[in-house]
């Protein structure tokens, strides 16, 4: 009896999966779409918030049971990422919540548990902490503790993170490390508009709860050709965005643009740098990084969050475990300082291009 | 769509808070010398589980001091200097102006002593000045200089003043309320007959931690007064869209509540005085201050995308707190028009002087970056950007 039900249940869930285009079939879908639309691929110059806006439009269009909610999203959001959604999809699908992060995420988990796609927005990543309990104790463990009876895979939490130049203590934090410590959720951080759209659509359609951090510094600043059609980028796959042979640099989000500048400068001194965008922080793509380190023998990780206990520590430890004998120099981490995110001292705190350049040189000349 | 709703019902609420038909009171009942100053129309309190009435009229010195303090703060926290400094990029980060809401800070100060504690959210410039902060400290802190009250490390949202019991200055809304209840808990132990005022806004009124704090305070009879400064907009969201029950004074349910006209400094003063006496005997009380802010939420918010300019100017005309006191003073010949104008000129000069002085104050030393992360002398190692080279021992 029970096994009979289980069989039917699986069939039902598979058909739901097929209908709802979960990214278990992601790679196949990407190829399919690319083949279909190769003739008519149009791309437009968009900035990050417009790319995310497009992704949200597509997500709501393709799945009638998806919802976008958060503080002030109805009029477009404080960063304009949700413009036009209420007008197009109605107040029943795109709505404001009161000022209660814990409530927002808890509510999203419940909505997702009933098979919907809940896209919750936390206005700034600095405010995500009241929701921390819900994310860590509820969302991450739901499938596990219910023996796969229930899950909140439809939940995606979007939050702008990162320094912006004048944000101060509570508008600049990078809390990704806290969430990387929680098995059961995924943490995804895009580096550019084209990546953001594809990654966000993958996250929304992924059958696991995802925390999607958007680098707010790049909202207006980063402009790129973004394809207009519906496309998804695979999660848990890192990308080598610059080939090199002397040292591997790993980063994510806005920090990559700084690292790229450092790479270009290092090139002038004859150091060839390989730059990897991790994209998904957990579960992260160890193979790509390992292959790269086996090629170069040196690793440098850079992120905005404070260095002690930051995600760079995990990458460093894992790579040392795997590539100890190959490493020519200790793994370098160029990160934020071990202080609260400062106000006037932000230029000192940040891992700037020069700090990275210095670390590249000292690692190569070890 | 939202604005249409506003113009119909809420707008009339804003221009005339409390019940639509309010009595025009001229309080002539004298209960104690000196002879009372008859006042212009006042709005009665609305209450839950408690009885508070408008006490007899206040004295002339009080009115004068209220005008002086309000006017200073209006200039200081309000509409003239910070926007200019912000545009000149001398103030960076976030700056939340308090203009329109001064009556709350002023009235509250008039009712309490420096031994009572105040804790509020990020709209704290005026509250800080009320607690004895100088204009120099305010502007220096806004510009991130050493002469600021938090040594330039806090910024606009984090003003503190230990010797006057001002506990700040908090960026995360709602987080200051359980803190305030903790302060009250300590005060109850010390038996000093002092209380804590924990202020929050209508947006923060929907935070879960507020209700946790309410429950604990009521359970243990803590001398805390929770003041909801209801300026009707949580950033850009009108209160009726965020709260099922915008009657924030009733949110306490088992905790008594009082709704006060927050643009009337005298009503605020009397409510706070009543509240202080109440909580020392009976445990917490909620005061809802019906107030309004003329500027947007912060310097990056024009303030007119979610409400009409008519509404803003309407409230400014009908309910402006400083004008109200000015009218009372003039109507009863407590000072001449010229005297008041001279006061304002002096205050403006003071503000300009303070700004000039603040501009000369230096930025904090780079070594300050690592200072006060932990207690001094702990000597832990903090790592700089590169673990190998930059290490600092925390001072």
UniProtKB/TrEMBL annotation, chain A:
Name the domain of life: Eukaryota
Reaction(s) catalysed by this chain, per the record, are: N(6)-[(R)-lipoyl]-L-lysyl-[protein] + 3-methyl-2-oxobutanoate + H(+) = N(6)-[(R)-S(8)-2-methylpropanoyldihydrolipoyl]-L-lysyl-[protein] + CO2
The signal peptide here is none
Q: Answer whether the UniProt record assigns the keyword Zinc to this protein.
A: no
- State its Enzyme Commission number(s): 1.2.4.4
What keywords appear on the UniProt entry? Answer: Oxidoreductase
- Which Pfam family, any one, appears in the UniProt record? Transketolase_C
Which co-factors does it depend on? thiamine diphosphate
Transketolase-like pyrimidine-binding domain: residues covered: 46-221
Q: Which InterPro entries match?
A: THDP-binding, Transketo_C/PFOR_II, Transketolase-like_Pyr-bd, Transketolase_C
Q: Where are the transmembrane segments?
A: none
**Alphabetical list of Gene3D superfamilies matching this protein:** 3.40.50.920, 3.40.50.970
Q: Name the enzyme group at the top EC level.
A: oxidoreductase
| Name recorded for this polypeptide | 3-methyl-2-oxobutanoate dehydrogenase (2-methylpropanoyl-transferring)
The organism of origin for this protein: Hevea brasiliensis (Para rubber tree)
TrEMBL record, chain B:
Domain (Dehydrogenase E1 component) ranges:
84-366
- Biased composition (Basic and acidic residues) is annotated at 307-317
Keyword Oxidoreductase listed? The answer is yes
The organism sits in which domain of life?
Eukaryota
A single Gene Ontology biological process assigned to it is: pyruvate decarboxylation to acetyl-CoA
Question: Where are the coiled-coil regions?
Answer: none
CDD domains per UniProt: TPP_E1_PDC_ADC_BCADC
Q: Which GO terms describe its molecular function?
A: pyruvate dehydrogenase (acetyl-transferring) activity
Q: Where is this region: Disordered?
A: 298-317
The protein's matches in SUPFAM superfamilies, at most eight in alphabetical order, are given as:
Thiamin diphosphate-binding fold (THDP-binding)
Matches recorded under Gene3D superfamilies: 3.40.50.970
Is Oxidoreductase there in the keyword field? yes
> What EC identifiers does the entry list?
1.2.4.1
Q: Which UniProt keywords apply?
A: Oxidoreductase, Pyruvate, Thiamine pyrophosphate
Co-factor(s): thiamine diphosphate
Catalytic activity field? N(6)-[(R)-lipoyl]-L-lysyl-[protein] + pyruvate + H(+) = N(6)-[(R)-S(8)-acetyldihydrolipoyl]-L-lysyl-[protein] + CO2
Residues annotated as signal peptide = none
UniProt enzyme class: oxidoreductase
Subunit composition and interactions: Tetramer of 2 alpha and 2 beta subunits.
Summarizing the function annotation, the protein's role is: The pyruvate dehydrogenase complex catalyzes the overall conversion of pyruvate to acetyl-CoA and CO(2). It contains multiple copies of three enzymatic components: pyruvate dehydrogenase (E1), dihydrolipoamide acetyltransferase (E2) and lipoamide dehydrogenase (E3).
Q: Which PANTHER family match?
A: PYRUVATE DEHYDROGENASE E1 COMPONENT SUBUNIT ALPHA (PTHR11516:SF60), PYRUVATE DEHYDROGENASE E1 COMPONENT, ALPHA SUBUNIT BACTERIAL AND ORGANELLAR (PTHR11516)
This chain belongs to the protein called: pyruvate dehydrogenase (acetyl-transferring)
Q: Which organism is it from?
A: Hevea brasiliensis
From which lineage does this chain's organism come?
A: Eukaryota, Viridiplantae, Streptophyta, Embryophyta, Tracheophyta
């Amino acid at each position: 009896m029970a096994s009979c039900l289980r069989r039917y249940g699986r069939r039902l869930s598979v058909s739901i999966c097929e209908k709802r285009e979960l990214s278990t079939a992601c790679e196949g879908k990407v190829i399919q779409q690319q083949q279909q639309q190769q003739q008519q691929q149009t791309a437009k110059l968009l900035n990050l918030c417009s790319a995310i806006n497009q992704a949200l439009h597509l997500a709501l269009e393709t799945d009638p049971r998806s919802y976008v909610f958060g503080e002030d999203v109805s009029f477009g959001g404080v960063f304009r990422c949700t413009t036009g959604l209420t007008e197009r999809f109605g107040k029943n699908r795109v709505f404001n919540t009161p000022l209660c992060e814990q409530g927002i995420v808890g509510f999203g988990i419940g909505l997702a548990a009933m098979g919907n796609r809940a896209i919750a927005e936390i206005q700034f990543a600095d405010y995500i902490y009241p929701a921390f309990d819900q994310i860590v104790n509820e969302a991450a463990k739901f499938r596990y503790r219910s023996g796969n009876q229930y899950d909140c895979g439809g939940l995606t939490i979007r939050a702008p993170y990162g320094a912006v130049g004048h944000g101060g203590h509570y508008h600049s934090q990078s809390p990704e490390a806290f969430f990387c410590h929680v098995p059961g959720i995924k943490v995804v951080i895009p580096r550019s508009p084209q990546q953001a759209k594809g990654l966000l659509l993958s996250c929304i359609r992924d059958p696991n709860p995802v925390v999607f951090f958007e680098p707010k510094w790049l909202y207006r600043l980063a402009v790129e050709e973004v394809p207009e059609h519906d496309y998804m980028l695979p999660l848990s796959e890192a990308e080598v965005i610059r080939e090199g042979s002397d040292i591997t640099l790993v980063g994510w989000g806005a920090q990559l643009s700084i690292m790229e500048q450092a790479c270009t400068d290092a090139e002038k001194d004859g150091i060839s740098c390989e730059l990897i965008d991790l994209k998904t922080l957990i579960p992260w793509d160890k193979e790509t990084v390992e292959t790269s380190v086996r090629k170069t023998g040196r690793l440098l990780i850079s992120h905005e969050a404070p260095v002690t206990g930051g995600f760079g520590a995990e990458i460093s430890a894992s790579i040392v475990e795997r590539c100890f004998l190959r490493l020519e120099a200790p793994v370098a981490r160029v990160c934020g300082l071990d202080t609260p995110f400062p106000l006037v001292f932000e230029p000192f705190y940040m891992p700037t291009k020069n700090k990275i350049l210095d670390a590249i040189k000292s690692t190569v000349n070890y | 769509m939202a604005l249409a709703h506003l113009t119909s019902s809420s707008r009339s609420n804003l221009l005339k808070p409390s019940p639509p038909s309010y009595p025009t009171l001229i309080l002539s009942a004298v209960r104690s010398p000196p002879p009372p100053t008859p006042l212009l129309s006042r709005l009665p309190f609305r209450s839950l589980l408690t009885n508070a009435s408008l006490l007899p009229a206040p004295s002339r010195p009080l009115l004068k001091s209220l005008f002086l303090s309000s006017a200073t703060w209006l200039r200081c926290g309000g509409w003239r200097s910070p926007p200019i400094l912000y545009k000149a990029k001398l103030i960076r980060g976030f700056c939340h102006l308090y203009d329109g809401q001064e009556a709350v800070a002023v009235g509250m100060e008039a009712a309490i002593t420096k031994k009572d504690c105040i804790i509020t959210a990020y709209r704290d410039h005026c509250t800080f000045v009320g607690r004895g902060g100088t204009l120099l400290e305010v502007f220096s802190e806004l510009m991130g200089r050493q002469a600021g009250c938090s040594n330039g490390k806090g910024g606009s949202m984090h003003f503190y003043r230990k010797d006057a019991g001002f506990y700040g200055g908090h960026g995360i809304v709602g987080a200051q309320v359980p803190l305030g209840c903790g302060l009250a808990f300590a005060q109850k132990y010390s038996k000093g007959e002092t209380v804590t005022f924990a202020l929050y806004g209508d947006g923060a009124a929907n935070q879960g931690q507020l209700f946790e704090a309410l429950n604990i305070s009521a359970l243990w009879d803590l001398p805390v007064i929770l003041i909801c400064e209801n300026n009707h907009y949580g950033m850009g969201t009108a209160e009726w869209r965020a709260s099922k029950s915008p009657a924030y004074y009733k949110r306490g349910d088992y905790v008594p509540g009082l709704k006060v006209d927050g643009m009337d400094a005298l009503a605020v003063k009397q409510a706070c005085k009543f509240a202080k006496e109440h909580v020392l005997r009976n445990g917490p009380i909620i005061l809802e201050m019906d107030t309004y802010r003329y500027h947007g939420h912060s310097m990056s918010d024009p303030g007119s995308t979610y409400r009409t300019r008519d509404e803003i100017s309407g409230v400014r005309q009908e309910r402006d707190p400083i004008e109200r006191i000015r009218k009372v003073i003039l109507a009863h010949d407590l000072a001449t028009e010229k005297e008041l104008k001279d006061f304002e000129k002096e205050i403006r000069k003071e503000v300009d002087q303070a700004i000039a002085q603040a501009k000369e104050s230096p930025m904090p030393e780079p070594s300050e970056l690592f200072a006060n992360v932990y207690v001094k002398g702990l000597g832990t190692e903090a790592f700089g950007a590169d673990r190998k080279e930059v290490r600092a021992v925390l001072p």
